[in-house]
Design a protein that fits this description.
Residues 499-516 have a biased composition (Basic and acidic residues). The protein is α+β, with helices and mostly antiparallel strands. The protein has 5 domains: 5-20 and 103-278, 2-Layer Sandwich (Alpha-Beta Plaits); 23-99, MutS, DNA mismatch repair protein, domain I (3-Layer(aba) Sandwich), CATH 3.40.1170; 283-386, 2-Layer Sandwich (Dna Ligase, domain 1); 397-465, SH3 type barrels, CATH 2.30.30; 477-585, no CATH class. Helix content is 37%, strand content 19%. It has a 5-stranded mixed beta sheet. A hairpin with a 2-residue loop joins β5 and β6. The chain is globular and about 95 Å long. The chain starts with a strand and ends with a helix.
Length: 585
């Protein structure tokens, strides 16, 4: 179903995006207050996960190699001061302090953050430190309790209280928030306006919202990265969001239709009705963990397997917490040249233990490493293709098709058995060969087609065993009726002739079969059972023979006549074609 699109300010929904400030670094500073005023980076020489605001003044940012960040600080004369036993000691390390990533502590702080904001409405976690929250119900409730305040004021007060509660419960971790009507994209942009430890509300009138939005750099649009910013700026002269509207025609000509229209919608404040409630109920599409590796150890296979095992254990803990287990395992490798290699494998069953996940991921990692042949700076594990639980009592499409197939098979077999039992006078049941599927008489001990021995008991009919089933009813031969092209063709076996009759309401006539076998046995041919290839023109030798089979003279003559006469009805090919038409009907 397509989402309903409209201007964000026309919506009655209130959207909030809340983002923790320098999350990893804030946890480190909280646990070690001496780091508060020094340039701090969380990570290593391979890559920095985040940096505090002191380090950001010197150009240090996330996803930057640590040795580059250290050189930036060194060139700007930054000194790292640490207190030693003899007083203040100046350490010339480029002035940047590094702390290794400590994921368990960050996850514990993230859980406090998540548990707190989830009390304010349906929410969706975008990462450990960022959440989208629909606060519509809470805003309406606050406005009803205090009629002296508007919904705008109620939304602002509500978000302010939520931020204070997060700070209190997490022992001093601050967060910033953005508030907007009807559009999480606008709320995301607003969350960066008053960082750190602040909040901003997008103007609620259409004119005010557009004026604010069009003044923003295009880089602030959620979904526009550095590459897109460079292309739009250098190629089309688009620097601010408002330039997108001015140069919309050029944009649509230069970009793909979907990409161009997406940018125009974003610049006009047009939103699609993102349903956070549905996203929260459906759960994540995948669960993953990544780790930046030590530069000195990245070439060690033992170190890589150790990190991989830890990542698999963390992924399985998250899967158990969310009660979602997947079949697709993916390993991600990133080199120091920023080349990314991913290997996936879909298993037969869901992975429910860290050991099984590690075994599958280890094999994928070994394959990827053999292809890359370069040192690795980042390693990640992802589980996806979750099996969705079916509500109790609800059938799936697969159950329906399986039941229908089984029912159809039972009906077909029942019809075959009914025909055979009728022709045998109601005694015994026909059986189908397990090798060639030929339908045999109840008294046959082996298949008349492939001579495969029958599995199971055999019904006894006295001397009738060893001869073809009779076609005589009341002393005469029974006519064979064949439906073909709207006509009913009745075939009689009398000597070497084959006759055709037009459709008639009268009952088919019966004639005596005058053809006899050399061995004295009857050479009559029974009707083929439904969906089973008929064996026409074969007879069983009588008691004086060795039990072999041969084509009857009548059948041979009929086939010869059919080859010379275009109007003739070939017995074997026609029956096969008619059975195919029957199965189609």
């Amino acid at each position: 179903m397509a989402a309903r699109r409209h201007c964000a300010c026309e919506s009655e929904r209130w959207c909030c995006v809340i983002d923790m400030d320098m999350f990893y670094a804030a946890v480190e500073i909280r646990d070690d207050p001496s780091l508060h005023d020094v340039p701090l980076a969380v990570g290593g020489d391979a890559m920095i996960s985040t940096a505090n605001y002191v380090a950001r003044k010197y150009g240090v940012r996330a996803a930057m190699p640590g040795f580059i960040a250290r050189e930036l600080c060194r060139r700007q004369g930054v000194e790292l001061r640490l207190e030693g036993p003899s007083g203040v000691v100046v350490m010339m390390e480029g002035g940047l302090r590094f702390k290794p990533v400590d994921m368990p502590r960050y996850q514990a702080a993230s859980k406090i953050f998540k548990d707190t904001v989830s009390l304010y409405g349906p929410m969706k976690m975008l990462s450990l430190d960022e959440a989208y929250i629909d606060i519509t119900a809470k805003v309406a409730e606050a406005a009803m309790v205090d009629e002296s305040i508007s919904e705008v004021e109620a939304a602002s007060l509500l978000v302010s209280r939520m931020r204070e509660e997060v700070c209190e419960k997490s022992s001093g971790l601050t967060c910033s928030a953005g508030i907007a009507r009807g559009c999480f994209r606008l709320a995301k942009m607003a969350s960066d306006v008053n960082k750190p430890n602040g909040q901003f509300m997008v103007p609620t009138t259409t004119q005010g919202m557009l004026e604010w939005l069009h003044s923003m750099p295009i880089r602030k649009l959620h979904g526009v990265g550095r590459v897109s910013e460079r292309e739009l700026s250098a190629g089309l002269g688009i620097h601010k969001v408002g330039d997108i509207i001015i140069k919309a025609a050029e944009l649509l000509h230069a970009m793909s239709s979907s990409g161009g229209h997406w940018l125009i919608d974003a610049a006009m404040g047009v939103t699609d009705m993102e349903d956070v409630t549905a996203a929260a109920e459906s759960g994540p599409k995948s669960i993953s963990q990544e780790r930046s590796l030590s530069t000195a150890k990245s070439g060690s296979a033992a170190y890589l397997h150790e990190v991989l095992e830890e990542l698999c254990s963390q992924v399985m803990e998250l899967c158990a917490e969310k009660e979602q287990y997947g079949r697709c395992v993916t390993v991600k490798l990133k080199t120091f040249e920023w080349d990314v290699k991913q290997k996936s494998n879909t298993l037969k069953r869901e992975v429910r233990s860290g050991r099984l996940l590690y075994e599958a991921a280890s094999e994928l990692m070994s394959t990827a490493l053999a292809t890359l042949k370069k040192p690795i700076r980042l390693l990640g594990v992802r589980v996806s293709s979750f099996q969705t639980a079916v509500p109790q009592g609800q059938s799936t499409l697969g159950d329906f098709l399986a039941a229908h197939k089984a029912s159809s098979s039972r009906v077909a077999v029942d019809e075959c058995i009914t025909v055979e039992s009728h022709e045998h006078g109601g005694i015994g049941e026909a059986w189908s060969c397990s090798v060639c599927t030929f339908l045999n008489k109840a008294t046959d001990r082996r298949c008349e087609m492939c001579h495969e021995n029958r599995v199971g008991p055999v019904a006894e009919l006295g001397s009738s065993r060893g001869s073809k089933r009779p076609m005589l009813e009341g002393g005469g031969s029974r006519a064979r009726k064949v439906h073909k092209k709207g006509a009913i063709e009745s075939r009689r076996r009398s000597g070497n002739t084959t006759a055709r009759e037009e459709p008639s309401t009268a009952a088919p006539q019966h004639e005596d079969d005058g053809g006899k076998d050399a061995g004295g046995g009857s050479s009559t041919v029974a009707d083929p059972p439904p969906q089973v290839a008929p064996m026409v023109g074969w007879a069983t030798a009588g008691s004086g023979s060795q039990g072999g089979k041969r084509r009857t003279a009548a059948a041979t003559a009929a086939l010869d006549d059919d080859e010379d006469d275009d109007d003739g009805i070939p017995i074997i090919p026609d029956l096969e074609e008619e059975e195919e038409e029957d199965m189609t009907r």
